[in-house]
User: Which sequence fits this backbone?
């Protein structure tokens, strides 16, 4: 009997660059629960775009990762956040950069995509847009932000450790979507923007592939980022080879990075050149896989 079920797939990441020897059990447990919840949504027919937004918003809210609630203050003493989201079939995209005082940058990024003619809003303008459309604000910034898993308080103040969260999905209609969110690098200068909010650098989705990147944003931008992977894949390069080529260039330039991707045929690729990458994946054809260093 022919299997007529339509395919779906999901991949999540909680950032490249975890430190070998530290315990990420709580992160992996969270990724497992979230991936299974998102799988149910995809199996029930929810769109890839909806599922990506839901997944990234939950990653932001958890405080377990260097994004959303787990973000560190910049050198001026306050938290600035970046995020972007992209819908593959329409190429519609939205992003926010250096936005402060809001709970979920990914939800605001989708708002930019759907409620403005723009792709990216930054700083005070992004905050004004978010406030005008009723997105949830952080009521007490001094007590809201927490130290994420695998990071020490001293590292949040003094190091240039980085972190990002992201999701890519394929829904039963064949549509792909991607989203990425970050608190940026620890110790970053006020106003710093990395790859995460930049469509084509940190995030990309089209008819063939959806990609979310993580790592040192400056190096990802200089290496061509997500769009370089997508273009190589479109030109016949296997997805894993295309992704590895971008990661190799990041490494050559002095950075470290990782990426997750889903192709139009539900193939899932997750690679990194750091010690590890917190990640999870599941599809109609593949059982749940959750790991950090393997």
Assistant:
């Amino acid at each position: 009997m022919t299997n007529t079920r339509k395919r779906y797939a999901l991949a999540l990441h909680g950032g490249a660059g975890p430190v070998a020897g530290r315990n990420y059990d709580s992160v992996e447990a969270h990724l497992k629960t979230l991936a299974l919840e998102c799988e149910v949504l995809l199996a029930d027919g929810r769109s890839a775009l909806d599922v990506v937004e839901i997944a990234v918003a939950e990653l932001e809210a958890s405080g377990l990762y260097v994004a959303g609630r787990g973000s560190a203050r910049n050198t001026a003493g306050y938290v600035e956040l970046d995020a972007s989201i992209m819908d593959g079939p329409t190429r519609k995209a939205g992003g926010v950069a250096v936005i402060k005082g809001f709970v979920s940058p990914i939800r605001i990024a989708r708002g930019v995509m759907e409620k403005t003619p723009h792709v990216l809003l930054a700083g005070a303008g992004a905050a004004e847009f978010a406030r005008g459309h009723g997105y949830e604000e952080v009521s007490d910034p001094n007590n809201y932000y927490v130290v994420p898993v695998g990071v020490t308080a001293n590292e949040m103040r003094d190091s240039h450790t980085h972190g990002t969260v992201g999701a890519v999905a394929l829904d039963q209609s064949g549509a792909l979507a991607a989203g990425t969110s970050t608190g940026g690098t620890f110790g970053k200068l006020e106003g710093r923007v990395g790859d995460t909010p930049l469509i084509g650098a940190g995030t990309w989705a089209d008819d063939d592939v959806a990609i979310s990147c993580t790592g040192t944003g400056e190096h990802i931008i200089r290496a061509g980022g997500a769009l370089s992977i997508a273009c190589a894949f479109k030109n016949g390069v296997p997805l894993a080879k295309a992704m590895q080529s971008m990661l190799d260039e990041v490494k050559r330039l002095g950075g470290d990075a990782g990426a997750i991707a889903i192709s139009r045929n539900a193939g899932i690729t997750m690679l990194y050149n750091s010690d590890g990458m917190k990640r999870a994946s599941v599809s109609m054809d593949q059982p749940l896989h959750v790991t950090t260093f393997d």
Q: What stands out?
A: The CA atoms of residues 1 and 7 lie 17 Å apart.
